[in-house]
Amino acid sequence: MAFFPHLLLATLEGLVTSSVLALTALGLSLVFGVMRIVNVAHGEFFMLGAVLAWAITSAVSGNPAIGFALALVLSPLIVGAIAWTAERLVLRRIEYDPEATIVATIGLLYIIQQLALTFYGPEARPVTPPFNVRIQLPWFGYSGYKLAVIAASALLLLATWFVLTRTRIGLVMRATQYDRETALAFGIPVGRVYGAVFALGAMLAAVAAVLIVPIQQAHYLMGLDPLLLSFIVVIIGGLGSLRGTVIAALLIGVSDGIISVFFSPTLAKIIATLVVAMVLVFRPQGLFGTATK
Amino acid sequence: MSGDGETAKVYTLHAAVVALLVALNFILPEYHHGVLARVLVLAVFAMGYNLLFGYVGLLSLGHAMFFSAGLYGAGLPLYHLGWGVPAAFAGGIGAGILVSLVIGLLALRTSGVAFMIVTMMFAQVFYLTTLYFGEWTRGDEGLVLQQQSRQVALGAGTLDLTNPTTRYLMAVALFAAALFATLAIVRSRHGRVLVAIRENEERTRMLGYDTFANKLAAVVTSGIICAAAGAAYALLFGYIGSTFASVQYSILPLLWVLLGGAATTLGPLVGTVFMYYVIDITSSYTSAYMLVVGLVLILLVIWFRKGVLGTVRERWVRWLP
Amino acid sequence: MTDSKRIFAKTGITRRSALKGLAAGSGLMAAPGFVRYSQAQSSAPIKIGFQAHRTGIGAAYGRWYEKTTAAAVKLINDAGGINGRPVEIIVEDDGTDPKRGAEVVAKFASQHKTDIVFGTLFSHVVVGSAPTAGELKIPYYVVSEGYHVASGKLNRWVFQPGITDVRAQVTSVAPWIAGNLGKKVTMIYPDYAFGYDHRDYFAPAIKAQGGEVVAQIPIPPTESSFTKYLPQIPADTEVLYHVMVGPGVLTFVKELGEFYGSNKPQLFGFIDSLEAVDINSPGLEFLDGSHFWEGSPRYAQANDSEAQKAYRTAVGIDDNGASTTDSKDVSTAAHMFGCWETLYVIKKAMEDSGYKGPEDRAKLVEATEALAEFKEGPEHPQGDKKFNGKIHQVFGHQNISKVEGGKLNVVHRTSIEDGLYEPEADYTTQPL
Q1: Is A6 touching C (CB cutoff 8 A)?
Q2: 3-state SS assignment for residue A241
Q3: pLDDT tens for each residue of A167-203
Q4: Which chains border B (3 or more CB–CB pairs < 8 Å)?
């Protein structure tokens, strides 16, 4: 294939990766920023979102769009409820001790994975996309659904941005993130905010997974990659910066796509990872972060 | 921190642990004897991790890279170049020094969560590199180091690393060396600077200590201990493969250390043994054992927030190092 | 998923030993290793340790390997067992991890005191476990299809007598590809050892047919989308040779479909990509008319032998290769027959050597090495086979199937000779 079509294709692919990654990472960034904890189970919430999407769509007959729409609403709600329960039952009890939280969320990861394996099974299962349009460009064909994923992610990111900056809920969250003690003094129920933030973070991961599952299939081990990539995005973007998270997701997704044009796949992965690591080495506070502790 | 009486107690305790491990060689049933040899080598891996995480407060998610640097540094020359066991072991250590020095110089420009992510990414690069050079490493499938290549000529006799007793005692020797090295380091002046850095790096620097040099030294020491574990794993158990460089093997030492108690010299051993047997025992009663393991981890951390020995030290045995 | 720990020959053993273990005390003492098992008597079961992928990336295969094994053992026991003794299967999960794999082999040998170890699929687990099997001198029969056993790089205690290796598979399908699909081939394969076997042995095989590999595209295992690599496929490609494993394979095929549309090169794939996946899944329409290698056909064929029919009934798969109790539960039919056939090879070797207990393990190894041919029949429903005792590897027929009307129809069956190659090793020279 000629160079420019190839580059276009790689960029499109990078944008799809970026958009879903931005949603997932935003969830992690909220939890990380507000609660100051490393949630190792974040990828499992992503996986649960995808698995539930499969369960919901396969339970609903008729037009695949109906099942998908249902999954888009229900799956994040269920995942949010599970996350909220886990937060109340476990994380609250260990008082968000940073090290104990790592062990506890690894425990949570094992539990969720096992439940998925037992009740869902070890197979990768596909979900029918709500619509199937193949867009034929002069040089190659491309999935219309993938373009829709980019648009949907952008909308969801905007909505999240609106909630965080323009509503009272967002204000309460930001206050808690900024200074927990003062927030408490002003009568903000910090405990409940933590529960809500943890649930919201998981829901963002779940909704990202529902969007991606018609492209990538649900599998009980699919949570690891989004977890690692989300961590990278959150840190590169700068802790607590929504704008940074989105730009970092774009940087990682698109650079991954473009570098793949020039090298064999494994070498491309090596180089892309090194490039991003070096960004952090020479700008440790991330692209948009102020120096954090 | 500790008087002379405590020093004696500390050394007695550690000598007793090593003596117990040696004694177990003669007591343990065959299966558990073999398990413990493996667990001891992995506990050394955890001890190397603990040095950096527990004492300096640097949370790395890339230690699989140091372990597998030792694994490949020892295994590849032995497999391809026919090196003997001692040279291969030295090769593993050398690879560990090289990798940890380079990673330390780069990653220590960051701190906190950025350090965690940078080490994770470098480890990912290392993992992919082992796949990229699959012609020599055979990638994920890995290589078998044949039994005859894992023997050392010692004067008249040979030291056969595939013999269970020899293997066990070598593992205990490595463990004892790492244990006393850790103990010596954390009780040294350098070790106290490390703890000071963990508590307040800014103040330590203002007191005139070169915190970067001290941290770099800690990264390299940690790298050497982990690489020694990796090299020993290759030579004692005869298999090298890129699975050991994957991110799971970076998370495991963190988990072992947190379970046993970060910044305790014996915690890594406790955590590694605990985790092995939790999986081994539960998996013989149910195929859904990960559920049980997850619950155990959560309950344990609710009751022992600082890990087993960390909590024991906090509540009962204050002098525990 | 089977919840019971063991697949029984006789009832009651698990419960009893579990209770004994519990009674022995708490903590470490509860580990079954401290329970003394009585010495094997003539009527005591022959214990086979089954190293299963219950968790980890291989779990989809592991589940069907367990089902096939259970079905074969039931038949063997109903027919009187081995040497008059019932067979008992003891399952341990290896997590599809080479480290745990080695630990599990040690557990079988020294705690469960099984007679042999059997059943592994993923090649890194096989290679990771092989040194332990060799040191503990316990015969280790794998069902993995890697070239690792035949390469001579493992040891005398490891056998692969029930499934052919990748080298033989790709060598025997190459002439058919060159003759029927095209001569300019682009290969897409995972960038790990399973892919290396394809890379290393397909290229010379197609060259021998006057064809050539025009591009090789290895995909790293951390990748979950593939479209961006597809432009690397040269435009003059006549045949796209694809082999993928893991959860990303459906994505791969779908993205291939979106990329090419109707204007595609000929496709030849290894069914490994789609084991346990319904060929009629959404997005796979693109595969219609393409060809696959299959070890044993997933779909019942018109000319199936009685043995093949009986095998399918015993394992519990319908004419579409799905579970008879759940038509959505698609089996790993192309590989799992290897468990069945391996168990019958073990039975034969144990009978030939008059195997009585662990002290006869060396005799068992020699008896296995002495085997040369397996006849098609109830014990070998996939077809007849030739066994090379020097490289511990079996050779057999391969099937090439075409996707037509939502089914896989066998269009060509290779001869055993198509897959033979010059052995590179001789395990029999190693000391026992």
Answers
A1: yes
A2: coil
A3: 988 888 888 888 888 888 888 888 899 999 999 999 9
A4: A, C
